[in-house]
Design goal:
The chain has three helices and four strands. It is mainly alpha-helical and about 120 residues long. It has one domain (about 10-100). Strands 1-2 form a two-stranded antiparallel ribbon. It starts with 10 loop residues before the first strand and ends in a 20-residue tail after the last helix.
Length: about 120
C-alpha cells in the first residue's frame, strides 16, 4: 500500500448522496436512522478503518524517519543549528504528536510551518 500525503476520510453513499461518518452519526443521534442501519454502518466503518490504519502507521513511521536526524546534537536545517534554535522544541513536540497520533479518529498532526521536506 502506498503512503498517501493526506488522511483519507471515511465516506459512503447514504440515501443517494455521499456522506461522511460525522453527518451520518448526527442523523442517528437525532433519531433519523434506525439502530439496525447504524450498527451495520458502524461495522463497515470499523472494517474500513482497519484497512486504512496500515497506511496511517506507514505515514507516521515515514514522518519520524524523515525527522530522526533533527534530534542529533549536530543537526542543522537549512544552515541553522537546531540545538540552539527554538525550532528544535517545535520539532520535538511534532514528533511526540506523531507518536501519540490516534490512527483511527484524529486528523494527522501538522508539521511545523518552517519544515518542508521535498522527499515526502
Amino acid at each position: 500500500m502506498m503512503v498517501t500525503t493526506e488522511k483519507e476520510p471515511y465516506r459512503f453513499y447514504f440515501q443517494g448522496e455521499v456522506t461522511d461518518w460525522h453527518r451520518f452519526k448526527a442523523a442517528y443521534d437525532a433519531g433519523n436512522i434506525s439502530d439496525e442501519l447504524y450498527y451495520e454502518r458502524l461495522a463497515l466503518r470499523q472494517t474500513w478503518l482497519d484497512g486504512h490504519e496500515v497506511n496511517e502507521r506507514a505515514w507516521a513511521r515515514a514522518e519520524l524517519a524523515a525527522t530522526d536526524f533533527m534530534e542529533l546534537p549536530t543537526a542543522t536545517y537549512q544552515g541553522e543549528r537546531l540545538v540552539t534554535s527554538p525550532k528544535l522544541a517545535e520539532m520535538l513536540a511534532y514528533r511526540e504528536a506523531v507518536r501519540r497520533y490516534d490512527l483511527r479518529e484524529e486528523s494527522r498532526p501538522l508539521r511545523p510551518a518552517w519544515f518542508v521536506d521535498a522527499s515526502l
